Amino acid sequence: MEFKSKGLVLIIMLVVALALAGSGFYLFQREHVKNLELTSKVADLSAKQKITEAKLNEAQRTLANLDAKLKDATTQITALTTQLQEEKTAKEEALARMTQMQEDLDQQKKLRSDLEKNLNKAQDDVRVIKNQLKKIDTEKIRLESKIKNLETKSDVELGKIVVSPETGQAVQTEATKVAKAASSGAAQGLEGKVLVLNKEYNFVVINLGAKDGVAAGELFSVYRGDNYLGDVKVEKVQDVMSAAGFVAGDVKNKVKEGDRVVKKSK
What we know:
Oligomer: single chain
Distance between the termini: 201 Å
Largest sheet: 6 strands, antiparallel, barrel
Radius of gyration: 70 Å
């Protein structure tokens, strides 16, 4: 009985051992299958990782290329911005120069207009001056003719002597008497008279000259009768007459031809 019991126990243990062994083998098989599956998955993941790493490397290279292109684009943008700013500055400077040139052109036009006006005025003035010169020349010729006539007349009057048919003696003319009176009055002051009056050019011609001792710069007082009219100053001296200007502006409106002149003592 004891032997049977031991055999039964042994059998049970053997069955248990076989069951355990079968269970263990089953588990081993399952683990082996799982291990194979995991190995396959790891291989898959490793392949995918390599693909991902390759894509990552490619992306990094692409990113590096894009970064380089971005830097290049940034450089170009900076250059274009600088060029645009320079062009803008050049445009503003050109506009400023154009504005200044327009202002200068307007000013030149105004100056030209003013010059044309001044030229026209100058031409008008020249015409007026030419007309005045013609008048002056005409007046000069008239005065020179008158002075020559007066010189001739003065020489004739001062030197004229007539003989009285009754007595046969030389008789002085009125002109000779006037000359003697002027000569006798020389001790008191040289006297003469106004031969020509020219108000336009402010001078008179008197019948006293270098032969009478008259010199340029001397003053003569003008009288009408005993009335004092003003003074004249000798400016040009000839042999028997002189030209004298008015000392005061209102004297020319008082003096007349024929008025008496007396040399003023210094």
